[in-house]
DNA sequence: ACATTAAGTGATT
DNA sequence: AATCACTTAATGT
């Protein structure tokens, strides 16, 4: 049994289920900025995130992106779940934010486990629920927050999932995630800096008082 | 030293 | 808030 599987999912699943996951699944290691799942892909494995973080994006008709939410360790990707139920295709793109370790489980076990293991059923329902809540939060931010508030929230979220207040990123990258222009981000960041909420240097932003 | 990339700025819509 | 056009600063080769 992989220690990270035990560590992140041990308390969630019954022992017997954990054994079975360990047996039928396999470990997959990814570097940062690798595409885990792309728009239009179909899904043959459910990934459990053991280590690292993944960002989930939507794409507009011009190919510009918009960040929907982050998936952290101990989570799974809800899009994957809804895809492998039928033979639906992915509506989103998932990209690793850091080096990431996944435990891949073939979809064929999914249905059987729903009946067999209450802890699995709970996990799946819980995953859907938390993802739904996160999406609502994202919609709220898009609809009700001004750009500067959104930006601060983005930085704080990112710092949280990465586990560090120092973000190695460029203004342009942030602009892509937030579906706006670099100039706007630069100006707002500067405002946040004078408000003592962040500290900037080239290629890095430190989020103060989290 | 030069080229490239990141970030800052003023003006306009 | 977006876009343009341009400048300045930091970094790689």
Explained architecture:
It is built from 8 helices and 10 strands. By secondary structure, it is an alpha+beta fold. The strands form 3 sheets. It has a 4-stranded antiparallel sheet, sandwiched between helices. A 3-stranded antiparallel sheet has the order 1-7-3. A 3-stranded antiparallel sheet has the order 8-10-9. Helix 4 packs across helix 5, helix 6 packs across helix 8 and helix 7 packs across helix 8. The mean pLDDT is 93. The structure holds a DNA duplex (13 and 13 nucleotides).
- Percent of sequence in beta strands: 15-25%
The count of DSSP E runs of length 2 or more, i.e. the number of strands, is: 10
What structural category characterises the helix and strand content?
alpha+beta
Rg, nearest Å = 18 Å
Query: How far do the termini sit from each other?
Result: 36 Å
> Counting H and I runs of at least 4 residues, what is the number of helices?
8
Output the strand order for the largest sheet.
2-6-4-5
Question: Which characteristics define this entry?
Answer:
single chain, 210 residues, alpha+beta, 4-stranded antiparallel β-sheet, 8 helices, 46% helix, DNA-binding
Summarize the structure.
The chain has 210 residues and is α+β, with helices and mostly antiparallel strands. It contains eight helices and ten strands.
């Amino acid at each position: 049994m992989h220690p990270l599987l035990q560590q992140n999912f041990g308390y969630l699943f019954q022992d017997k289920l954990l054994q079975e996951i360990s047996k039928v699944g396999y470990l997959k290691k990814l570097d940062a900025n690798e595409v885990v799942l792309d728009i239009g892909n179909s899904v043959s494995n459910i990934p459990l995130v053991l280590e690292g973080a993944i960002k989930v994006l939507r794409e507009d008709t011009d190919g510009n992106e918009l960040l929907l939410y982050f998936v952290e360790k101990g989570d799974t990707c809800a899009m994957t779940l809804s895809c492998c139920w039928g033979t639906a295709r992915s509506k989103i793109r998932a990209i690793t934010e850091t080096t990431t370790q996944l435990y891949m489980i073939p979809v064929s076990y999914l249905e059987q486990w729903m009946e067999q293991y209450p802890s699995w059923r709970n996990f799946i329902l819980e995953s859907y629920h938390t993802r739904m809540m996160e999406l609502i939060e994202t919609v709220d931010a898009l609809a009700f927050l001004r750009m500067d508030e959104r930006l601060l929230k983005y930085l704080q979220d990112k710092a949280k999932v990465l586990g560090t207040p120092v973000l190695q990123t460029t203004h342009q990258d942030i602009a892509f995630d937030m579906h706006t222009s670099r100039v706007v981000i630069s100006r707002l960041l500067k405002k946040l800096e004078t408000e003592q909420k962040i500290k900037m240097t080239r290629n890095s932003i430190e989020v103060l008082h989290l």
